[in-house]
């Protein structure tokens, strides 16, 4: 992600004002996986909105992240069904295993963690999705095994 | 238009909110997030009142009046609501008044007392935040923040800087910079207007009291202090005197009692600034330099130009501010004269300003590796020092500042008010260009609290057009006009970061009303009216400094010691 490519993306929003801010942020996130500092500064200049305001808006919504996603993006469901099935304890276990919190990426760039509200797979609850692969009825004891699979896959490559 | 309040009819205007109508009628309603003249965000609900026909209590700050509206300001329901609000705010507050810098001046504390809160009715988990002490001027303690948003509004509206905003949502909401980074790498220009509007101890100046106390206790150090023009007309308020009382003489005595070896007057170096700046202006005007020239004494404004308008950097006067000029001549001329090693001089300034702390630390302000000024105290910090020593300003005998930098003209003194620098500069520029004194020294058109003031003045054959702005929101408007070419004939612009100038600086006593600020300003002009030496070039000590040391304004020595450079900055550090 560099200023030039972000600038090109913004060219698709001629004359954009503050009402276009959220669609632009979504577009950037979809393209690059996250909102970099540089992106926010470039948007700030183009839309004439202070960076602090853009950051304020972006942090209001859960959907935006500010760190590059890992090679494996982990989504942990905290919806109602998963909650009833113990996803709170599961989240703690995942945080402990990956040593990062929601919105963060492991220093080796392998995993990033995101908490989502409902993944639409309540029958499989509690559920964790890794790059779209669903892991159903996960128990805290099984967390390490899931991530070890991906680690092994990396070593194999 | 009439409304009925607590059974009594009161007059109001159609554009009134319920709150402004009540305030004009002298009916007290507590407020917390409300700031006069700025957008009412209705965030705190402290000003709620009961209105007949309305199911819910309404926030009076954000509710328009209507004919014959029936308002109840202190019904049991209203009082219960207000008290509950305070109790809830307290439940997420460190509750550590004994250790807080705002103990005694805190609005949350005052309202807690006022509403008779006598127990901790709600307890539970509190938000946890780390303090941000990254910035040399302003310290933030988000744990004490009640999210009223006053700082956000002042930063956005009054100053057009928007260094901070609400971050996050719900119980995780906090005030922070872009990317929640330290204030030091944000677009904050260090003005401290946020500190002045903060109702609690969430924002304060970065204190330098410890360094100053340590230096005073060091027998090998000569500790020199300078006090800014506006400090003598605001310090009194910290000791219960009414706004606009000039305590210059007793303040000098107090500074000596505190142990400072030499007391110098920044108004002296303000005169020196004028000698340099008026010469620079005369040079630009008569030899075709970059115009309009912008004044450079307000460090918040300097950072503002560096990050928002870098292409106008050549328009800024290269003169250092009076604080830095004093610092520079203290460690050069004075050191030599007194036979002191500059390394053994600790130079302190007392300023109405938090941005001065940042300015003193700028790398450009080093000479041979030594900073011009070692520590900057705000007016509030000086008051704290005086109280700590138990000195009674009412009981001290007045004294005068020390030579060689103790005497000033009144032109240097009015630097503390918006328009003062311009007035002082024009008095001297006129003399420089025409060889004659201005016939009417007082330039009334550029005095007062207006955000933008303009005047034209005949100087020799030219009509010099000047503008004076204060508050960076006003400065931004003018800059946009200049950038768009709408103001081709402007020659000289004075900009003060804070509305009204240094008398309303971010380091001044808390809780000053607009009337208090006006009184402070008037005190400076009263001094100007009553004294004889009213031009900077008429200051004999300044003349002597040039004869014995600097040679001539904008000369070689001046450029080494009294002038500086600026550089473009990113708004947000990447």
Overview of this structure, please?
The complex is a heterodimer of chains A (157) and B (574). Chain A is built from 7 helices and 4 strands, in the order ααααβααβββα. Chain A is of the alpha+beta class and 157 residues long. Chain A has a 4-stranded mixed beta sheet with strand order 2-1-3-4, covered by helices on one side. Chain A is elongated. Chain B has 574 residues and is of the alpha/beta class. Helix content of chain B is 34%, strand content 14%. Chain B is built from 18 helices and 19 strands. Chain B has a 5-stranded mixed beta sheet with strand order 2-1-5-3-4, with helices on both faces. In chain B, strand 3 (48-51) and strand 4 (58-59) form a beta hairpin. The model of chain B has no long low-confidence stretch (mean pLDDT 96).
Q: Give the full name of the CATH homologous superfamily of the largest domain in chain A.
A: Glutaredoxin
Determine the oligomeric state from the structure: heterodimer
Q: Largest interface, with Cβ-Cβ < 8 Å? A: A-B, 16 and 21 residues
Q: Architecture of the largest domain in chain B, CATH level 2?
A: 3-Layer(aba) Sandwich
Query: What proportion of the residues of chain B form beta strands (DSSP E)?
Result: 5-15%
Q: Strand order within the widest sheet of chain A?
A: 2-1-3-4
Mean pLDDT of chain B: 96
Radius of gyration of chain B: 25 Å
Radius of gyration of chain A, in Å, reads 18 Å
> According to CATH, what is the class of the largest domain in chain A?
Alpha Beta
User: What's the count of strands of chain A?
Assistant: 4
Q: Given the structure, what is the number of helices of chain A?
A: 7
Give the CATH class of the largest domain in chain B: Alpha Beta
Number of domains of chain A: 2
DSSP helix count of chain B?
18
Note poorly predicted spans of chain B.
Answer: none
Strand content of chain A: 5-15%
Can you tell me the overall shape of chain B? globular
């Amino acid at each position: 992600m560099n200023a030039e490519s972000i600038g090109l993306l913004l060219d698709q929003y001629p004359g954009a004002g503050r009402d276009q801010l959220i669609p632009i942020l979504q577009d950037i996130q979809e393209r690059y996986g996250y909102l970099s500092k540089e992106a926010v500064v470039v948007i700030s200049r183009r839309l004439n909105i202070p960076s602090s305001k853009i950051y304020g808006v972006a942090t209001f919504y859960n959907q935006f992240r500010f760190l590059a996603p890992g090679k494996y993006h982990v989504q942990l469901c905290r919806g109602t069904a998963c909650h009833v099935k113990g996803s709170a304890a599961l989240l703690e276990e995942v945080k402990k295993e990956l040593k990062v919190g929601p919105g963060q990426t492991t220093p080796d760039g392998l995993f990033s963690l995101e908490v989502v509200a409902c993944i639409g797979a309540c029958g499989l609850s509690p559920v964790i999705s890794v790059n779209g692969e669903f892991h159903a009825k996960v128990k805290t004891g099984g967390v390490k095994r899931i991530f070890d699979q991906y680690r092994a896959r990396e070593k194999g490559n | 238009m009439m409304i009925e309040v607590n059974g009594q009819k009161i007059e109001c205007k159609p554009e009134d909110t319920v709150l402004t109508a009540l305030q004009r009628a002298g009916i007290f309603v507590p407020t917390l997030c409300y700031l006069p003249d700025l957008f009412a965000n209705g965030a705190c609900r402290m000003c709620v009142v009961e209105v007949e026909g309305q199911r819910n209590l309404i926030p009076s700050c954000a509710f328009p009046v209507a004919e014959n509206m029936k308002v109840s300001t202190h019904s049991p329901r209203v009082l219960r609501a207000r008290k509950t609000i305070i109790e809830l705010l307290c439940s997420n507050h460190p509750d550590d008044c004994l250790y807080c810098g705002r103990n005694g001046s805190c609005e949350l504390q005052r309202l807690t007392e006022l509403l008779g809160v006598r127990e901790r009715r709600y307890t539970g988990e509190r938000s946890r935040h780390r303090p941000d002490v990254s910035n040399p001027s302003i310290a933030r303690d988000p744990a004490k923040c009640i999210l009223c948003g006053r700082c956000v509004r002042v930063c956005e509206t009054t100053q057009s800087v928007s260094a901070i905003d609400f971050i996050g949502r719900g119980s995780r909401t906090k005030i922070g910079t872009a990317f929640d980074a330290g204030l030091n790498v944000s677009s904050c220009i260090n003005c401290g207007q946020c500190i002045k509007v903060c109702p609690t101890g969430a924002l304060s100046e970065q204190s330098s009291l410890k360094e100053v106390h340590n230096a005073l206790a060091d027998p090998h150090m000569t500790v020199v202090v300078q006090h800014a023009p506006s400090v003598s007309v605001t310090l009194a308020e910290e000791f219960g005197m009414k706004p606009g009382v000039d305590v210059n003489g007793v303040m000098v005595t107090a500074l000596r009692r505190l142990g400072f070896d030499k007391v110098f007057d920044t108004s002296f170096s303000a005169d020196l600034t004028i000698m340099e700046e008026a010469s620079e202006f005369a040079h630009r005007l008569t030899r075709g330099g970059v115009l309009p020239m912008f004044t450079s004494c307000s460090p918040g404004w300097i950072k503002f130009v560096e990050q928002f308008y870098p292409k106008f950097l050549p328009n800024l006067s290269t003169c250092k501010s009076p604080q830095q000029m004093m610092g520079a001549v203290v460690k050069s001329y004075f050191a030599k004269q007194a036979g002191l090693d500059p390394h053994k001089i600790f130079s302190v300034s007392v300023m109405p300003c938090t941005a001065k702390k940042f300015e003193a630390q700028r790398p450009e302000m080093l000479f041979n590796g030594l900073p011009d000024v070692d520590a900057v105290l705000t007016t509030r910090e000086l008051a704290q020092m005086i109280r700590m020593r138990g000195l009674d300003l009412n009981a001290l005998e007045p004294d005068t500042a020390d030579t060689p930098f103790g005497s000033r003209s009144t032109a240097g003194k009015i630097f503390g008010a918006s328009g003062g620098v311009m007035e002082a500069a024009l008095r001297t520029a006129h003399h420089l260009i025409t060889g004659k004194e201005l016939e009417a020294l007082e330039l009334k058109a550029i005095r007062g609290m207006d955000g933008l003031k303009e005047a034209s003045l005949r100087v020799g054959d030219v009509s010099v057009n000047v503008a004076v702005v204060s508050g960076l929101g006003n400065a931004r408007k003018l800059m946009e006009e200049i950038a768009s070419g709408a103001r081709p004939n402007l020659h000289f612009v004075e900009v003060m970061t804070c509305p009204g100038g240094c008398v309303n600086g971010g380091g001044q006593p808390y809780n000053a009303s607009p009337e208090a600020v006006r009184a402070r300003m008037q005190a400076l002009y009263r001094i100007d009216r009553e004294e004889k030496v009213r031009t900077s070039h008429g200051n004999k000590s300044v003349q002597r400094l040039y004869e014995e040391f600097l040679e001539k304004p904008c000369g070689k020595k001046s450029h080494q010691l009294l002038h500086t450079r600026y550089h473009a900055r990113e708004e947000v550090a990447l």
